[in-house]
Amino acid sequence: MIRLFYGDDRLKMKEEAKKILGDNYEVLEGVNIQLSDMPSIFRGASLFSDKRAILITDLGENLDAFEKLDQYLDTPHEVVLIESKLDKRTVAYKAIKDKIEIREFKPKETVDPFLAFNILKTAKKDGARAVKMLEEIEEDHDPMMILGAFVSQAVRDYSAKQGIKEKRVLEELSKLDLLMKSSSMQPFSLLKSFLLQVSLL
After folding, report:
1. Is 22 exposed, middle or buried (0-12, 13-18, 19+ CB in 10 A)?
2. First CA to last CA across the chain, in angstroms?
3. Helix, strand, or coil here: 53?
4. pLDDT tens across 1-23, in order?
5. Which residues, given as ranges, of the chain have pLDDT below 50?
6. 65: helix, coil or strand?
7. pTM for this prediction
């Protein structure tokens, strides 16, 4: 089965793909796929199993390969395509749009600053409670947006009171920002770990 996810919320798309594909799956960059690779990708078996789990990123940028996708809709494998952009005007899209699952993933545009303030304020006293508050909004928010809201609030806190704790919170948020951009760990797990640390700073 082939599924196609597209949109700006790449983290959410990858999380959803992992739910479908499990922990062991192949990752292929669509731009590097040759037409001659298509049969082995969509119909070829692996050494260990007849059914494979495959994640393909940005195949839409490889027009030659994307245009042939409709020839492989009968694949026995679990295949998830992740696309940053999807041109719905193309012949290739029209050939598949009614035959496979296609979902758009849009991050929530903003995070309520009052909510971010409450979570960060709570974390300074009770990290576990702050984690629960985060879990209540996790489903509907982009983790990077939440991080940005925390940073904005922490900067305001530091401007109002340039204390040691306020400075440490900013330093930890700076480290968290780098980690979330470079680590393979789940972004919400990193946010929760930060909230648990805040009360100890």
Report:
1. exposed
2. 48
3. strand
4. 999 999 988 888 999 999 999 98
5. none
6. helix
7. 0.57
